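Follow-up to my post from last week.
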Amino acid sequence: MSRTDTDGPRDEAPAKKAGLASFLASVPFAASVIAIIAVACIVGTLLPQGEQVADYLQEHPENEGQMELLAFLGLTNVFSAPWFIGLLGLLAASLSVCTYRRVLAARGKQGKALGRVWGSVLTHISLLLILGGGVVRGIWGERGDISFREGDTTDHFVVNRSASKLPFSVTLEKFEIETYSNQEEPSHPAAGDIHEQLQIAWKERNLEWTLPIRLDAVQQFGPDGADRKPEDSFQLTILRRITDFVVDMDTGEVTSRSDAFNNPAILVEVVNNGHTNAQWAFARYPDFNMHSEEDKAGRGAQLTFRYEVMVPAQPQATVKDYKSTLVISEDGVVVRKKTIEVNAPLSYRGYTFYQSGYNPKDPKWTSLQVVRDPGVPIVYAGFGFMILGLIAVFYVCPGGRPATRPGVTKEGASSDDTI
Amino acid sequence: MTTLFNVSFTAYLLALLVSVFALFSKRRLVDVTGIGLLAAGALVQTVYMLVRWSEAGRAPFSNMFESLVLFAWAIAVVYIVLSIKIRVRALAAATALITVVTLAYASAFESDIRPLMPALQSNWLSVHVFSCLLGYAGFAISFLSAIIFLVAARERSKATKEIRDAMEETTDKTIAFGFLFLAIGIITGAVWANSAWGTYWSWDPKETWSLITWFVYAIYLHCRYMRGWRGKRAAWIAIVGFISILFTYIGVNFLLSGLHSYA
Ligand code: HEM
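User reply:
Got it. Predicted complex:
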């Protein structure tokens, strides 16, 4: 490459002083930093990052050593690693110095050339603003969640499992989920569509049966054939059938939380040789039988039960929108009220509440994301400057671009470029 | 609606045939016919997208099919505007080819109009996708002109200096255009993410790759204008940039997972 001034071929004065500043402001240095950042970004998208590492290890447990090495090298959290932040810092340093020099170089320029300098200054300052806004977010920003039900009020949100206090309180007045109207509302499956059966295994005897579920019907079982003795046969009754099993930890009472087949269970009673025993079998946990309170002796035939339920897949209504009506109060006085939805958050005193999710099992439950990011206005100013600056450089004052000015390209071109 | 799609595809295909023929015939009328067919294809596509817009009740820029249709349209439009100043037959043929390939690839995707998930129901989405794709279209043409430049710069090539200069100028112009629109695309995407999720940047793979791509072109601009790089070296950066575009646009969807994986 032929000799060129650090600040481009046209500018002499500010680039003369050698030293660190000139080094930082040189285009080769800037281009190298940008290139290294780009490579770091590539690494960050190709290697598993943050929470993905656990998923990756689940699939490839044999690579644990490698992952530890990558973590040690700071490659499993590239975008928040000190070395990456350091690179962004170098970019910022380079940008600052060369922007400063641009401003000095603008003196004595006129017309398009001046406009062009200002366009490029605006572009580079915009990058500094975006980076600066990111720093502000890192230092003073906060982000967390609130999950609550209709009617609840809170003045806290959860940041990394610990509570952070809000300077006001938020009440969820109403939560609504809208579905696309041309689709059916989710309904409970008709009884006839549900296929249930009970498999019984009698290990000692190496015997197995499969039966349909019939509540309260007494059924007699036992081995067939010659060795059938009275103590070998038993009576089986299904006492209860529950769609969504919950047990009260204090009283031990079993109830069903809902009619949906979320945790189906049956209580099976076995009477054998004078002993009665009852146990719960769970469709979701087929290898687990729970002896019930009613279990009398625990002796008698040792049977294991497998309860199977097949519920036909429901046509899931596609969610169109979900909306939370939030009321903000300070010292008991209502100060704001707004219905938020996914692309329409509520901001109050620096905190912004975003609709982030809902609980498909409990339609009265909403999740919100709470964000405080004082850097946003700075970043947005950067965005605006960037667009204006680029338009100025490329379209308003393109005539001032060095390469389109006669004489400059030849000087800058290297020998192998002349074809 | 499918008829409109097929008509535009046919127009691009004819534009390809005519512009390849133009490479040999060297008659102005043939050149103009080729560009005219490309324009006809873009016009029919415009109608197609408007019909789709009114049927869906939202801008038709929300899935891979729709964005590829937009991409083909944007390439044709950017080229037509460019051809007012710069006309090189090889570039016309290459542009027609890439529109045909893009639409053919689009037809491999599901073209049904589907309801949108809540996060996608935003005007920012339309602006975001539109400006990204317009930027990609600029870069696509810079890629073609860089390749034509490299072919024309071989020692055995009979291409004239005018053609090489025209290709360099095309690469410069379309990269400037792409750089601006990719910047607008990234920025509107960030603003949209901030209004939907409360964060303007989350290093999601697609975001990150668009930034990588943008950096590649930033390097092009600095080397080109500050260091005076020209010719082959500049052309190679333009080619690397477009490979990065392809990875951002298509590769990321298949190879990496993230927020954008629905598109
Ligand atoms: C990602 C970071 C950067 C981006 C996106 C960027 C963007 C740009 C753009 C669009 C131009 C105008 C190019 C043209 O004339 O066509 C430019 C010019 C320039 N850039 Fe950067 N730049 C970046 C980083 C830097 C850094 C770190 C330096 C520090 C050395 C730098 C120094 C310059 C200089 C000296 C010019 C010429 C300005 C002029 O002629 O007025 N850039 N940059």
